[in-house]
Amino acid sequence: MNRKLTSCLIAICIIICIGYAAHSAFTTLREFTFDDPNPLSKWSKMILNGQVDYKILKMGGDGYVDAMSDKTCSAIYYRLGYKLKDYPVLSWNWNVSKFPDKSAAKTDKEKDDYAARVYVVFPFLSFSSSKFIEYVWDNDLPEGSVVDSPEGDNIKIIVARSGACAEGEWKQEKRNVYEDYLKVFGAKPALGVGAIAIMCDADSTKTEAASKFDDITVSSEI
Predict the structure, then answer these.
(1) Which pLDDT tens digit goes with each residue over 49-58?
(2) Which of 21, 33, 95, 221 is 20 to 30 A away from residue 5, measured at CA?
């Protein structure tokens, strides 16, 4: 075998190995694009205080979840079991067109309304023994803030985005949920992920809120 051919084959092997390493380093467990017919058919409802209107709208060929709360609070969730360490990254696109009016809210419970929430749920035998991380988009709280939920110490709220956006402007988030878990709970997750959920709520303030969600992806790396 001549030297040029040998060098060429080595180069090809290196390229293949690099490509394989790059491919194998990134694995998508589940992606929700909401483009297929009836994309919410496998999502379940959790009604807490009246039903939020969740529906699929289309922008061209791209589908997305449109959420509207009128003094109501309910979530939709997708059962998805996996180890957080294997798939630590959660990414999604979202948009807020109307924030709940918290101007009259005084207590933490009254302030616990958000136009857009994305949950990672770690279920166990009961609500109190389960754990929840929720990423919210708030109008006032500083981005990066960690807020204790008034519902219990097992729920940690992370302000992923703050402030208004331009009309029709979508924002993308990418979170390493494993690292966030260590930060907010101070320990490695002992429970596996059991579900992903989204919510829009304005029941505590007795006002209205509206948001949109799209391209929710669970993957191994950013």
Answers:
(1) 999 999 999 9
(2) 21
